[in-house]
Automatic annotation (TrEMBL), chain A:
Annotated organism of origin: Kribbella qitaiheensis
Protein name in UniProt: FtsW/RodA/SpoVE family cell cycle protein
Keyword field: Cell shape, Membrane, Transmembrane, Transmembrane helix
GO MF term set: lipid-linked peptidoglycan transporter activity
GO cellular component, one term: cell division site
Automatic annotation (TrEMBL), chain B:
Entry GO CC: plasma membrane
Single GO biological process annotation from the record: cell wall organization
Protein name (database record): Penicillin-binding protein 2
UniProt xrefs under InterPro entries: Beta-lactam/transpept (IPR050515), Beta-lactam/transpept-like (IPR012338), PBPA_dimer (IPR054120), PCN-bd_Tpept (IPR001460)
Sequence ranges assigned to domain Penicillin-binding protein transpeptidase in this UniProt record: 157-480
Pfam families in UniProt: PBP_dimer_2 (PF21922), Transpeptidase (PF00905)
Any one GO molecular-function label of the UniProt entry: peptidoglycan L,D-transpeptidase activity
Species per Swiss-Prot/TrEMBL record: Kribbella qitaiheensis
Penicillin binding protein A dimerisation domain span: 52-136
Length: 465, 485
């Protein structure tokens, strides 16, 4: 009896909601600190809006925290504070860049766009609302498995939307936006979520046949074509659409996600090798036939061949930041094109330096590894796959965009999760974090009822035997 | 499945580590290279906003920074009344067109970014003061500089004066000149227009004729030939040299004539002293033939030919032709053919002779001091080459004193003081006016200043151009400016 109760106590994970609250206070403190710091360096005073800003993100974080206490008490305690910190820093940087970008537009004789920070704050609120919706509505992530094909279809539909004439708009060469009721959306951000659910749900059902059936070729068990069919088609269509939309980053992301999930589901490294070869082949094909891909590569190899090119200016900004950075508000990040969106990492690297950039990368690493930890702990295969997919989507996205901005790989336009200016991306990321938290709640929840096992129960059990 | 997820976790960490490694390389190791790029607006803007240290002549700033209330915080200004006089030295400091002169070579000291000022920067950060650059003091003598500028006014040419014992540059003037304020302004449209106009000007006001342009030195080069002759041991000031009205040049039908078409001092043979006094081409042509090109080049190089001087301003290297044949050697011996020299170089020849044959390395930055007057660096005089022995230097000095007393250099005389000098008139092409030269030092017995004057174009009739008449009075004025102090 006593043995039974101690073992229950041992496996029972603590909820750690208190830890989450502490971390949230730190995250909010850092965000508000950044906001105040920028105000002091730029205007020599604490911004009047500091109270609103602090109250705003404090309130949003608190609501999210309470929702977790109420509906997902065992959820991972680190994910939410990481998301709040990145979101808060992003808003502070966007706010910091607004006047500079405005000044540049005025100097060039253009009409300046309306300030971006208020939009981003609004979208943060929308994101947190979606976060709450996911936490409150989806009580068990396994229910999503029933939506496998619906999610697949929805994902494809979302991807195709920007290609519809009259709805899709071409911005900076990529046709990945739709304009509806005067607002722009990037449906691909949600397609990512849908397709992860679809890939996971499909693989749960088909993993055995994918692993076992079929014939051996080059040391690899190739599945039957009809088992691979639907997923293959989905993959091809998504890639095809992305090629038409000129969205390199997303096509890499989708391809990678598909491959990783196939690998996890089948545990066959051969898929990674085949995928890698396909990627190399596809990349070479794109390089030699698609003009803008070629240009991306040549820009990457010699960023300074273009006078004041986006990458070159960004690299110079990062060099200007050096090891310790210029200090928030004391650099010139607005000189870099897209300093609030695609290149926001360069803005951070300039003002917070290598130290700050590494800290940001480490926060992303925490999110990724916490997500994969959730996958490891998750008891159902569907949840494992979804958690892996979501975590790896962060990994790929962060690698592709930061790698592109810092010159490690060719630059492809992808949103820096939670930080970059952009409503759809922000909202979608809040939904992704919510889903990860939901799965982690399941993963960390004690399997047996948490209540101590009473003597009577044991007695009854013994009697039954 | 878990082992596959674990492997993905490791892969994800590797990806993130790759990002960190790449950023470290970029921000810690490549930053210097990126910050040094010319197209780096961030660095340019921030340097442009720094309180740049002044450039001083004595205690007078010839370039200083004043607070401005536009986006650059500070405005570089050159005092209007003297801006043009010092422009060939200060250079300019422009947002659009970079820097030149001292503004270029002493940039890191002036803007305070030099490693030698690192401590100062730390103090500035701790005390929350705006970084201020160090001041650069020049060796220039304001009186000499102004005398040279006045003397050259309206002409095209250059003056360089050197303190023979140290190599300090006392005057460095090039005309026509420009106003660096036009390029340092913050109204970039106006700056662009000024730049265009200055570059379109056919008189090339931004070219530094004192140190960066090469001219045939003409008869002033005879000092080098005479030095080579005396150093060879085959000649002394009284040695008779063949000096007919025309010298037959071997291997050709060309004859080398004297300027006045007559022989040297009434005889076909003249002493070396007389030959120099009358600047006889035939006498020095035949010395050149006798000594050979090698000896002439050796002597020229000992005076500094073939080396870039005055790194603070990036002077051009003067040249003695690479492989002249006999007639070309004779021409070279009188400073024609392909011999090319800067006014600075010819001033160095005079200064070397003045300093007992020891040519001092010319320098123009006296010292660099922080804003609280701590000396960061102080230039020490340094010997460049022993061009001739003290005995030969003394013989040359005597001969040059004779040139000014009794010969072509009479316009360079200063009452009560022995001046040693040499005139020159160099031909280039028949359609261009010849270059008038005069190089001298004074007092001959205790030289305080050596000077070279070169006039490219003075808008006077061609026949009136002679080094003695045109250039010597300017040299005289510059020397007097220093000697009267």
């Amino acid at each position: 009896m006593s043995i039974a109760s101690t073992s229950v106590i041992q496996i029972m994970p603590r909820t750690r909601r208190g830890v989450e609250l502490m971390l949230l206070i730190v995250a909010i403190g850092v965000s508000v600190g950044a906001y105040v710091n920028i105000g002091i360096t730029v205007q020599d005073k604490v911004p009047a809006s500091t109270g609103y800003y602090a109250a705003g993100i404090g309130l949003l974080a608190l609501i999210a925290h309470l929702a977790l206490r109420y509906r997902a008490p065992y959820a991972d305690p680190v994910l939410l504070p990481c998301a709040v910190l990145l979101n808060g820093l992003g808003v502070a940087m966007i706010q910091r860049l607004d006047p500079g970008i405005r000044a540049i537009a005025v100097a060039a004789g253009r009409t300046p766009k309306s300030p971006a920070a208020p939009q981003q704050i609004t979208w943060t609120a929308v994101g947190v609302v979606l976060f709450l919706a996911v936490i409150l509505v989806i009580r068990d992530h396994r229910r999503l498995q029933a939506l496998t094909y619906t999610a697949g279809l929805a994902g494809l539909l979302l991807l195709v939307l920007p290609l519809i004439p009259g709805l899709g708009v071409n911005i900076n060469g990529a046709r990945i936006w739709i304009r509806l009721a005067g607002m722009s959306f990037q449906p691909g951000e949600f397609a990512k979520l849908c397709l992860v659910v679809f890939f996971a749900g499909y693989l749960v059902v088909k993993r055995d046949v994918l692993t076992l059936a079929g014939h051996r070729f080059l040391g690899l068990d190739l599945p039957r074509a009809r088992d691979l069919g639907p997923i293959g088609i989905a993959w091809l269509v998504s890639l095809g659409v992305l090629v038409f939309e000129n969205d390199l980053g997303s096509s890499l992301l989708f391809f990678g996600l598909f491959l990783f999930l196939l690998y996890v589901a089948t545990e066959r490294a051969g898929w990674l090798i085949i995928g890698g070869l396909l990627f190399v082949g596809g990349a070479y094909f794109a390089y030699s036939t698609i003009g803008h891909v070629h240009k991306r590569i040549t820009d990457w190899l010699d960023p300074f061949s273009i006078d004041q090119g986006q990458i070159a200016v960004g690299l110079m900004g990062q060099g200007w930041g050096g090891a310790l950075g210029r200090g928030l508000g004391q650099g010139r990040p607005e000189l870099t094109a897209y300093s609030q969106s695609d290149m926001i990492i360069s803005s951070f690297a300039e003002e917070l330096g290598l130290t700050g950039l590494v800290a940001i990368i480490l926060i992303y690493t925490l999110i990724i590894e916490r997500g994969l930890r959730t996958a490891l702990g998750c008891r159902d295969i569907f949840g494992k796959l979804v958690a892996t997919g979501l975590a790896m989507s962060f990994a790929l996205q962060v690698f592709v965009i930061i790698g592109g901005v810092t010159g490690l790989i060719p630059l492809t336009g992808l949103a820096t999760p939670f930080m970059a200016l952009g409503g759809t991306s922000l909202v979608a990321n809040w939904a992704i974090i919510a889903l990860l938290l939901r799965i982690s709640d399941q993963a960390r929840r004690p399997q047996t009822p948490a209540a101590p096992v009473s003597d009577e129960t044991i007695a009854m059990a013994v009697q039954k035997q | 499945m878990n082992s596959a997820i674990r492997r993905l976790a490791v892969a994800a960490i590797i990806l993130m580590l790759a990002l960190m490694a790449n950023s470290t390389y970029l921000q810690a190791f490549r930053a210097g290279e990126l910050n040094g790029r010319n197209d780096n607006r961030r660095v340019r803007d921030s340097q442009f906003s720094v309180n740049r240290g002044p450039i001083l002549v004595g205690s007078t700033p010839v370039a200083k920074s004043a607070e401005s209330n536009d986006r650059f915080v500070y405005q570089r200004t050159y005092p209007p009344n003297i801006a043009k006089i010092y422009a060939p030295v200060t250079g300019f400091y422009s947002y659009l067109f970079g820097r030149a002169g001292i503004e270029l070579s002493q940039n890191s000291e002036l803007n305070g970014s030099d490693p030698s000022l690192a401590f100062r920067r730390v103090v500035d950060v701790i005390t929350d003061r705006r970084q201020q650059g160090a001041s650069v003091s020049l060796t220039l003598n304001a009186a000499a500089q102004q005398a040279a500028y006045r003397g050259l006014a309206g002409k095209k040419g250059a003056v360089v004066a050197i303190e023979p014992k140290t190599g300090k540059v006392l005057a460095l003037v090039s005309l026509p000149t420009y106003d660096p304020n036009e390029l340092a302004g913050h109204d970039l449209t106006k700056v662009g227009a000024s730049w265009k106009a200055l570059n379109a000007d056919k008189d090339r006001p931004m070219s530094n004729r004192a140190i960066k342009e090469l001219y045939p030195p003409g008869s002033t080069f005879k000092l080098v030939t005479a030095a080579a002759a005396l150093s060879s041991g085959k000649y002394n000031p009284q040695t008779q040299v063949r000096s007919p009205a025309e010298l037959d040049l071997p291997q050709t039908t060309v004859k080398l004539p004297n300027e006045n078409g007559r022989n040297c001092g009434g005889s076909d043979n003249a002493t070396l002293t007389v030959a120099l006094r009358n600047s006889c081409n035939t006498a020095f042509g035949s010395i050149g033939l006798d000594l050979g090109a090698e000896a002439l080049r050796d002597q020229a190089e000992k005076f500094g030919f073939g080396e870039r001087q005055l790194p603070e301003l990036g002077a051009a290297a003067s040249q003695f032709p690479a492989d002249p044949n006999a007639p070309q050697t004779a021409q070279s011996a009188i400073g024609q053919f392909d011999v090319r020299a800067t006014p600075l170089q010819m001033a160095m020849v005079a200064a070397g002779i003045a300093n007992g044959g020891d040519v001092m390395k010319p320098y123009i930055v006296q010292n660099i001091k922080t804003v609280d007057l701590k000396t960061v660096s102080e230039t020490k005089p340094e010997s460049l080459h022993q061009a001739v022995s003290p005995e030969v230097a003394a013989q040359l000095t005597a001969m040059m004193v004779d040139v000014v007393k009794n010969g072509t250099g009479k316009p360079g005389q200063i009452s009560g003081i022995d001046v040693a000098g040499k005139t020159g008139t160099a031909q280039t092409s028949p359609d261009k006016p010849p270059f008038a030269w005069f190089t001298a030092f004074a007092p001959a017995n205790d030289p305080k200043i050596a000077v070279a004057v070169m006039i490219e174009d003075a808008n006077v009739p061609r026949n009136d151009i002679a080094g003695g008449a045109l250039a010597a009075p300017i040299a005289k004025a510059v020397m007097e400016a220093v000697l009267n102090q």
